[in-house]
């Protein structure tokens, strides 16, 4: 097992009637900025519950954070935090809103051009950074942003989708009420299942190693999502399904699975470009890219793919190569079952130059070798995208 450090200070309040505990969680005399996206929190009653809970605090509201939060929109909130001397930010939403709040938190005290946070991947480290503290009320399980310190923000002007983070950007607390999913559209629940599934795969489908517990934990989350995924889409008011779905999404990316093991993340880096260029839902870009990345890197990944096939999909017939190949096919079939289309051409007709555009962006950013073995070169990116059309 590789050497690692684990730090996660986020307090999780999981279960029913947790929003009402907000007054106990917020700093005394805090001046709060409540940040959310569109109007869904008004329709499902979350806005009323949150504002009722914080009625004795001084607070302002900022709405309009996009499903892929943009630097341009978030910059307006940063200005508000500065001008109104906000001391605490409360994200009410899914991963996009929470990621947006992480950026607002960091940028509000950042000395310099806030775009550099994204373009230079500046790390905000505990002790050396002073972001505005923030908490979250989760309304859409998917990204695990409620219990990690990373985020993804787009720059609309240049059609870029970039990551950032650091140990100083963990939420102080996150409230996770599984029943909130009953008001979500099916598409968002489908996305959440597939997003979490891919978060696990990025930390699991690498190469064989000796971190037994991490593998078994990853396989348990994958099996849970396979078991409940189709049903939770149809029965979002089933608390057993909803709670296991929400906790799987949180645990998939709360920083524990990647400790002591190699990780990949190339599927995400390529997928982010498809979202930036075409506005395709993040989870759906992963369903497009992932299987073809595994095929292009078959020789490098086949040992772990075969393990995945045996342990997660219960494939027993055939040799290691055959089981590994069948495991990829099973993954694609699961994405289809979850309502995903798995070809770029099913989302856009404007794909002719996609491979060249993305490969060139990787060159410009000096991303010349991604993945656990640094094998995902710009030329391989072209191959993966060509096979994904």
Describe this structure in words.
By secondary structure, the chain is of the alpha/beta class. It folds into 2 domains: 170 residues, Rossmann fold (3-Layer(aba) Sandwich), CATH 3.40.50.1970; 203 residues, Up-down Bundle (Dehydroquinate synthase-like, alpha domain). 48% of the residues lie in helices and 11% in strands. The chain contains 15 helices and 8 strands. The longest helix has 23 residues. It is globular, with a radius of gyration of 20 Å. The two termini are 38 Å apart. The model has no long low-confidence stretch (mean pLDDT 97).
List the helices and strands and how they pair.
Layout: E1 11-14, H1 22-25, E2 31-35, H2 40-43, H3 46-53, E3 58-62, H4 71-83, E4 88-94, H5 95-107, H6 115-119, E5 134-140, E6 150-155, E7 160-165, E8 173-176, H7 186-204, H8 212-234, H9 239-252, H10 266-278, H11 282-296, H12 298-311, H13 320-337, H14 354-364, H15 378-388
Helix pairs in contact: 4-5, 7-8, 7-9, 7-11, 8-9, 10-11, 11-12, 11-13, 11-15, 12-13, 14-15
């Amino acid at each position: 097992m590789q050497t690692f450090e684990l730090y996660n200070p986020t307090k999780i309040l999981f279960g029913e009637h947790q929003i009402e505990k907000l007054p106990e969680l917020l700093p005394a005399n805090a001046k709060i900025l409540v940040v959310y996206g569109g109007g869904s929190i008004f329709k499902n009653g979350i806005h009323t519950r949150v504002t009722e809970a914080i009625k004795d605090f001084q607070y302002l509201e900022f709405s309009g954070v996009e499903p892929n939060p943009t630097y341009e929109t978030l910059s307006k909130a940063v200005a508000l935090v500065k001008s109104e001397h906000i001391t605490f930010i409360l994200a009410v939403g899914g991963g996009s809103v929470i990621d947006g709040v992480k950026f607002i938190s960091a940028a509000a005290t950042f000395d310099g051009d806030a775009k550099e946070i994204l373009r230079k991947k500046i790390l905000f480290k505990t002790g050396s950074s002073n972001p505005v503290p923030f908490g979250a009320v989760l309304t859409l399980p998917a990204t695990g942003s409620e219990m990690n310190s990373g985020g993804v923000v787009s720059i609309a002007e240049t059609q870029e989708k970039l990551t950032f983070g650091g140990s100083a950007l963990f939420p102080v607390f996150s409230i996770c009420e599984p029943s909130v999913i009953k008001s979500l559209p099916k598409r968002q629940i489908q996305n959440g299942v597939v997003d979490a599934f891919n978060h696990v795969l990025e930390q699991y489908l690498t190469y064989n190693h000796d971190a037994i517990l991490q593998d078994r934990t990853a396989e348990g989350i994958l099996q849970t999502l396979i078991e409940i995924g189709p049903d939770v889409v149809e029965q979002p008011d089933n608390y057993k399904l909803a709670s296991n779905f929400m906790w799987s999404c949180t645990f998939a990316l709360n920083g524990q699975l990647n400790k002591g093991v190699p990780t990949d993340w190339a599927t995400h880096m390529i997928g982010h470009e498809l979202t930036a260029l075409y506005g395709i839902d993040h989870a759906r870009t992963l369903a497009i890219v992932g299987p073809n990345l595994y095929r292009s890197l078959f020789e490098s990944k086949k040992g772990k793919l075969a393990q995945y096939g045996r342990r997660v999909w219960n494939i027993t017939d055939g040799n290691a190569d055959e089981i590994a190949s069948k495991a990829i096919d099973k993954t694609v079939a699961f994405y289809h079952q979850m309502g995903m289309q798995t070809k770029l051409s099913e989302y856009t007709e404007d794909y002719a130059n996609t491979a060249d555009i993305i490969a060139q962006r990787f060159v410009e950013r000096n991303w010349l070798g991604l993945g656990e073995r640094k094998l995902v070169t710009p030329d391989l990116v072209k191959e993966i995208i060509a096979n994904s059309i």
